[in-house]
Design brief:
The chain is of the alpha/beta class and 323 residues long. The chain has helices at 25-28, 32-42, 59-62, 66-72, 93-99, 101-114, 141-158, 166-176, 192-207, 222-237, and strands at 4-11, 16-23, 46-53, 79-82, 119-123, 162-164, 256-261, 264-269, 276-280, 286-287, 293-295, 299-308, 313-322.
Length: 323
């Protein structure tokens, strides 16, 4: 009679969330993508972050660059973030229809062609400190921010994208903590604090959870950083529908039980959210049955279960000893 002596399990490396940022200096200023990465790691998550960003460049520019498409096609990204030239979304709708929206569409189509599971996220930016005096409709911060916000909301519906509402969090920080300086000396680029607002907003939007409790402060004093974390949580998580943020709670997860009867070993699949699977029993036998049953001699085996869905695959290794 065979009996199961012991088992130990090990999932393959924790799921890594991959994020590609495409934009300009509002993206790379103060190494914001690195801030986002370090904040994410401080919360116990694994993230792969890259960016393609050049100062003063629009999505029109990016849509014509080989470098942009090389980055898009370099892997099956979980998220690709699109950030437009800061003043462009504040222009009249009749103008943005020709100078901006077509390039959001072009890049979105390329992203989805590379991987239809990639979530496109739009980087809602902020109004200049005193608005843009070149046009009366945006000559104050409030008026400029309203137009930027409305444009990104409209774009998110038109191209079926989520929003990272950095501009909305920025506005709340301005209102609640007017002594905090979000702007660089030019009054439109972000200060270190402004970039931290972006990083914590992206964390909250991508993971659907509060960044509060992170000990990563990016060189800011802890009290200020925690105020920013809480503000991002409130603005993002209390308005998920407004930002088009929908999360899939059915996470792909491999699991199984082992039942031994005589010389027969049955594997009961307990995996979640999979569409296909494959077993490797460590003895030269492979199966794609849901709940396979096989004969196994006495000994030590490493059983490998690979589960897949349309977007991901995960592997569970389980060491079993049969005596």
């Amino acid at each position: 009679m065979l009996g199961l002596i012991s088992t130990t399990s090990m999932l393959s490396a924790q799921d890594t969330v991959s994020v590609l940022f495409i934009g300009n200096s509002f993206t790379f200023m103060n190494e914001m993508p690195k801030m986002f990465k370090e904040l994410t790691q401080s919360k116990g998550k694994t993230v792969h972050v890259e960016y393609v960003a050049e100062g003063g460049k629009s999505l029109d520019y990016h849509s014509k660059q080989t470098r942009t498409y090389t980055a898009i096609n370099s892997r099956r990204w979980d998220y690709v973030v699109l950030q437009e030239l800061s003043n462009t979304p504040a222009q009249p709708d009749s103008k943005t229809e020709t100078i901006s929206l077509p390039f959001f569409r072009i890049l979105s189509d390329s992203i989805r062609k590379n991987c239809d599971c990639t979530q496109i996220m739009l980087y809602m930016t902020w109004g200049y400190k005193a608005g843009n005096g070149q046009w009366a409709e945006i000559n104050t911060y409030e008026k400029m921010q309203a137009r930027i916000s409305n444009t990104y909301l409209r774009y998110s519906d038109l191209i079926n994208a989520q929003l990272s509402p950095v501009g909305a969090v920025w506005s709340q920080v301005r209102q609640n903590y007017p002594a905090l300086e979000l702007y660089d000396q030019d009054n439109f680029h972000p200060s270190l604090l402004g970039s931290y607002v972006s990083a914590v907003t992206f964390y909250t939007a991508i993971f659907g959870e509060s960044p509060y409790g992170s000990l990563y402060y990016a060189g800011l004093d802890p009290y200020t950083a925690e105020m920013i974390q809480l503000t991002a949580s409130q603005v993002v998580l209390n308005n998920l529908n407004q930002w088009r943020l929908v999360y899939n709670n059915s996470q792909l997860y491999p699991a199984f039980d082992v039942i031994v009867k005589g010389n027969q070993v049955k594997f009961e699949n307990r995996s979640v959210a999979f569409s296909s699977l494959e077993w490797d029993f460590g003895n030269g036998v492979v199966s794609r049955e849901i709940n396979p049953s096989i004969k196994m001699a006495k000994g030590k085996y490493t059983v490998k279960l690979t589960v897949k869905n349309n977007c991901k695959s995960r592997v569970l290794y389980r060491n079993i000893v049969i005596d």
